[in-house]
Amino acid sequence: MLKIADTTHFPPGHPQVAFGRIGVLLVNLGTPEATDYWSMRRYLKEFLSDPRVIEVNRVVWWLVLNLIVLTKRPGPKGKDYDTIWNKALDEGPLKTITRAQAEKLAAAITREDPRLIVDWAMRYGKPPIAERLEALQKQGCERILIVPLYPQYAAATTATVCDKAFDALKTMRWQPIVRIAPPWHDDPAYIENVCISLEAHLARLDFEPEVILASFHGVPKSYLEKGDPYHCHCMKTGRLMRERLEMSPERFRITFQSRFGTEEWLQPYTDKTVEALAKSGVKRLAIVNPGFTADCLETLEEIGGENREIFLHNGGEKFAAIPCLNDTEEGMRVIETVVRRELSGWMASRT
Ligand SMILES: C=CC1=C(C)c2cc3[nH]c(cc4nc(cc5[nH]c(cc1n2)c(C)c5CCC(=O)O)C(CCC(=O)O)=C4C)c(C)c3C=C
Ligand SMILES: [Fe+2]
Ligand SMILES: [Fe+2]
């Protein structure tokens, strides 16, 4: 077994520094601390003030955000969060699931290399990236792998995690050496496990869906036009899933959800597609969310709640929202594959 660095043998007057460890930091988007108006407002303010998320003129956006969005949105969105809140732990499900993913990853990899420490953070809200990076560094992590938990790269998600992490590094005297895990939109382990999970859920349904939508979170269309690869990553994930599932493009379709604001977003829109399918006579529909590593407001409430309603109100009869990979065996296989690969050269080899 590898020896973990020892911090106890420093000469008098020498600072007590820890060293010799390797950190893995899983980072997801973030979620409000509570569902009341002020907690929601704080969360939305931090999120929607990020210029990677909203690429609108700063002065114009400051006025719109503060005068309109932050007065109108926190109330109704807080009520939406109430419907999915983890009451036992008093937190959003995104937090519960990200913590569970970190714990399971730690159990899987630290047995092999006890120098490893796994932690987790949120880009917006708590626990903040800077706090967890500092905690890893204080425990002796000279090397840290940061894993933005997004299979598809977008400036609004992956890049902003990196921005925040590098902001934290700027304040450190002894900076850890950092690696960032790349997106895994076309990784065979991801495609295989997301399909295994989908097939298992479909097999348990009491109906066979005529159509399956792979619904990804949208971004404004202008982000694609400016060169963001997010759309291409989603399209590739969707195509690889469809090929693996051996389904026709009519049965397995890609859509984009969670529109925000008045600009055009990536199309086809999930809600409009759901409505059109129901109106055209489709009676049985399933929606899977391959772009989300954890269930959250956008999957549980928007897909499982709003889109179900849209489908059933327009003539649909059977609807299934397929759970995300979360901390299931399939989900952990994906995260572990990415982490093991990106730790290569750092982590002790299994042989
Ligand atoms: C212009 C605004 C937004 C962009 C661009 C955007 C991109 C984006 N978001 C996710 C993942 C998630 N978003 C979630 C919630 C959420 N998203 C926005 C806005 C944009 N997202 C808002 C305002 C919210 C909060 C809820 C609301 O007010 O509507 C979540 C859920 C978080 C939770 O607590 O459950 C996730 C996850 C991706 C992957 C993405 C671009 C690729
Ligand atoms: Fe979002
Ligand atoms: Fe594309």
Automatic annotation (TrEMBL):
InterPro entries named in the record: Ferrochelatase, Ferrochelatase_AS, Ferrochelatase_C, Ferrochelatase_N
E.C. number: 4.98.1.1
GO biological processes: heme biosynthetic process
Root EC class: lyase
The keyword Iron is assigned to this record: yes
Binding site residues for Fe(2+): H217, E298
Pfam families referenced in this protein's UniProt entry, alphabetically: Ferrochelatase
Function: Catalyzes the ferrous insertion into protoporphyrin IX.
HAMAP family: Ferrochelatase (MF_00323)
Name under which the protein is recorded: Ferrochelatase
Organism encoding this protein: Aquabacter spiritensis
Origin organism lineage: Bacteria, Pseudomonadati, Pseudomonadota, Alphaproteobacteria, Hyphomicrobiales
Gene from which this protein is expressed: hemH
